[in-house]
Design brief:
6-stranded parallel sheet; alpha/beta; 12 strands; 12 helices
Length: 365
């Protein structure tokens, strides 16, 4: 099976975590599946050819057995574009090749009164879902949002990055603590970029503070960022005192290795926490926006989330980190891993049903 997969091939390594998860999920059922990867919008590597255009649809019709769009927060609108999937609606209706939507989320802006989806976005999102054989929502927030939009066929499948490994709970007393920087966008205001955003500054200070605290208590700590664009700001908070500096892994496999060697993760980034979950490694997640909140609610992780808007975030993060590292929460984490596995079973069942339906149709052609 040849699959054309459209996703945001950005510098943010978390987007590639999701692509790896989608591949793992498909290959559980179709081991010989091969993927050709394409940019879903202009944020990716190819600035001239991207999205579900006429030429992309014609290419898929000639070559592909399946087209996948996802994941990431592609339902989100942005500055200068209506939403995250660039498409030609007329061309899309000429796609007889089965279409799956996997791991797409609403992001954070569509939850804001200032960033309601445009008429065009609503129309295109509805059309994409109508034509899809399978529409898998990333989290409960996205599922609710789609229902409000009138999309009723979407099913909750969870975040695909949880499918990368699916390992049992790791009960470690050794290894490093991985501290993951939050996205730099929360540290400044879009309307007044010269002003430090109070919440964003507090988050970065809290992450730097917990790193100092862990080092003082003899823990080995590695600090990473997910996007090279976040590195300059991260270095401002850690310059001069962090022994090994801030690391920005270039490949998912390099990042996965750092994660697998961790005893715990303290993350300001959603998809690092998601992959830690897949690896069975306990984590704390800073809940910064609609994406993180959707993940927390979907997997009932409220106990291990720290609200970025909490005025006492530094103290809260310190208390939660101490509890995380004490190692006396095994039963709670085991129940969370079981919920992850239940979500996986549902997702695989939905995927199996969809793949079976397209194979049956192919036999009758």
């Amino acid at each position: 099976m040849l699959i054309h997969h459209f996703y945001p091939r950005t510098q943010n390594i978390g987007d590639h975590f999701v692509q790896r998860g989608i591949s793992a999920m498909i290959r559980r059922l179709v081991p010989d599946a091969t993927f050709q990867l394409f940019d879903v919008n202009s944020r990716g590597r190819d600035k001239s050819a991207y999205g579900l255009t006429q030429s992309a649809i014609e290419r898929a019709n000639d070559e592909a057995d399946l087209v996948i769009v996802g994941g990431s927060n592609l339902y989100e609108g942005g500055f200068g574009w209506p939403w995250g999937v660039h498409l030609d609606p007329a061309a899309l209706t000429q796609l007889p090749v089965p279409l799956f939507l996997l791991g797409i989320g609403t992001g954070s802006r569509f939850a804001s009164a200032l960033h309601k989806p445009s008429t065009r976005a609503k129309r295109e999102i509805t059309l994409l879902n109508e034509l899809a054989t399978l529409s898998g929502a990333r989290d409960v927030a996205t599922l609710d949002w789609l229902k409000e939009l009138g999309v009723t066929k979407a099913k909750l499948m969870g975040d695909p990055a949880t499918f990368v490994f699916n390992r049992p709970l790791q009960d470690k007393n050794s290894g490093h603590v991985l501290v993951v920087m939050a996205p730099s966008r929360i540290a400044s205001s879009k309307r007044q970029p010269w002003k430090a955003h109070t919440r964003g500054g507090a988050v970065f200070r809290a992450l730097a503070g917990i790193t100092r605290q862990l080092l003082q208590h003899g823990q080995k700590v590695i600090v990473v960022c997910n996007d090279p664009n976040d590195l300059p700001l991260a270095q401002q908070f850690f310059a001069g005192w962090l022994p090994n500096g801030v690391i920005c892994p270039q490949a998912p496999e390099e990042y996965f290795q750092l994660l697998s060697e961790s005893r715990a993760v303290i993350s300001g980034r959603l998809h690092t926490a998601v992959v830690a979950f897949s690896l069975g490694i306990p984590f704390l997640l800073i809940d910064v926006d609609g994406r993180t909140n959707g993940f927390v609610k979907t997997y009932q992780l409220e106990r291990w989330a720290v609200n970025a808007s909490d005025p006492g975030i530094a103290e809260r993060l310190s208390d939660q980190a101490s509890r995380l590292l004490r190692g006396d929460e095994y039963a709670n984490w085991q129940s969370l891993i079981e919920r992850r596995n239940q979500m996986e079973s549902v997702a695989i069942s939905l995927l199996h049903e969809a793949l079976d339906s397209i194979q049956k149709k192919a036999r009758h052609v």
